[in-house]
């Protein structure tokens, strides 16, 4: 039996299977606007987005029909790989991925790797066995990436690059953000500013270290290794680094920490030493995790646009799955310096 696929008339829903042109007619917008609303909703004005989504609901249009026709696989799911599922940095990114994925007709699976290459390979097999249509990777590592079969899997990186490989990616400028927060401490009058680094096998940690170092050197201030304490982004390493820095013959008056979690460890070390932040030592973190504002004192930090990062990563992955390509291979999102109570002016003595 033939299907009537003609557009609806006079703003009425179409008969038969609706097309993107039908949705554009119903909503009173162009087909390009419909496509943009479904694939990159953040780029469309709220009122227009609401018009399009009303038309989609009224017509019973399924956005992923075209995607399913073009995809090589039919799992209807994508996989998000993270280093540590308990890390409070990840949930907002996952939320952004899931929000966009559901709009596009995909379910989302999360894989916790615990930084274990064996677990990473196990999750990769899901995509290779067609139980996931693509992957968003936040671990900075993909096993066997030189294998042609792995290279055929649609993959988008989020937050962390995979060294030596040019895969589509959404990120922030870690060096610039670290430089900005270091200049904030310089502007408060601090001249001896330490850094609690992240693990140096991760590019984002190296970039934050370099951003701190460049800002200090540009200001003519010391940036030697004696002012750098190793860490791993977690609270216990921050506490250990804080104790080591406070024990220096000339302790710092301000400390920039490569993550909010580690910054909370530094603050606990300051309190345990009978000192106060920011009266005795200013502390700044990085990420703006949910606990940053509620901590005592509230933490000055760099806010990463984690929700937008997840949304953008899923949009890019969808384009790869349906056989297209992102307009930009690397999308760099803006950060924001959030100034709270953990930093204050330098006080001599």
Overall mean confidence score, pLDDT: 88
How much strand? 5-15%
In the sheet with the most strands, the strands line up as 2-1-3-4-5-11
Order of helices and strands: HHHHEHEHEHEEHEHEHEHEEHEE
Number of helices: 12
Choose one word for the global shape.
elongated
**CA gyration radius, whole angstroms:** 24 Å
> Structural class, please?
alpha/beta
Report the strand count.
12
Fraction in helix: 25-40%
Structural commentary:
The structure is a single chain. With 349 residues, the chain is α/β, with parallel strands linked by helices. The protein contains 12 helices and 12 strands. The chain has a 6-stranded parallel sheet with strand order 2-1-3-4-5-11, sandwiched between helices. Helix 5 (90-103) links the parallel strand 1 (77-82) and strand 2. The chain is elongated, with a radius of gyration of 24 Å. The N and C termini lie far apart (88 Å). Mean pLDDT is 88; it is low at 1-11 and 64-73.
């Amino acid at each position: 039996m033939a299907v009537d696929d003609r557009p609806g008339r006079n703003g009425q829903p179409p008969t038969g299977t609706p097309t993107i042109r039908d949705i554009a007619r119903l909503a009173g917008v162009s087909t390009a606007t419909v496509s943009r609303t479904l694939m990159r909703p953040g780029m469309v004005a709220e009122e227009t987005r609401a018009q399009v989504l009303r038309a989609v609901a009224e017509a019973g249009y399924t956005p992923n029909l075209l995607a399913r026709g073009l995809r090589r696989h039919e799992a209807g799911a994508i996989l998000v790989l993270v280093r540590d599922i308990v890390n409070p940095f990840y949930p907002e990114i996952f939320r952004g991925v899931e929000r966009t994925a559901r709009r596009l007709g995909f379910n989302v699976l999360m894989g916790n790797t615990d930084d274990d290459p064996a677990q990473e390979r196990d999750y990769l097999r899901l995509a290779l066995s067609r139980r996931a249509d693509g992957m968003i990777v936040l671990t900075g590592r993909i096993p066997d990436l030189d294998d042609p079969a792995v290279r055929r899997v649609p993959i988008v990186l989020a937050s962390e690059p995979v060294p030596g490989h040019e895969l589509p990616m959404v990120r922030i400028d870690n060096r610039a953000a670290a430089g900005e927060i270091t200049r904030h401490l310089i502007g408060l009058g601090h001249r001896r500013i330490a850094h609690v680094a992240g693990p140096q096998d991760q590019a984002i940690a190296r970039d934050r270290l370099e951003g701190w170092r460049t800002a200090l050197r540009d200001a003519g201030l010391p940036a030697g290794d004696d002012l750098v304490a190793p860490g791993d982004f977690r609270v216990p390493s921050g506490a250990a680094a804080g104790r080591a820095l406070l024990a220096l013959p000339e302790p710092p008056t301000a400390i920039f920490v490569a993550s909010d979690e580690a910054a909370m460890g530094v603050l606990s070390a300051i309190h345990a030493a009978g000192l106060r932040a920011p009266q005795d030592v200013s502390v700044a973190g990085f990420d703006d995790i949910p606990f940053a504002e509620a901590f005592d004192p509230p933490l000055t930090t760099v806010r990463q646009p984690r929700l937008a990062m997840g949304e953008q990563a899923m949009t890019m992955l969808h384009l790869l799955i349906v056989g297209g390509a992102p307009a930009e291979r690397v999308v760099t999102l803006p950060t924001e310096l959030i100034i709270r109570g953990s930093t204050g002016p330098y006080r001599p003595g």
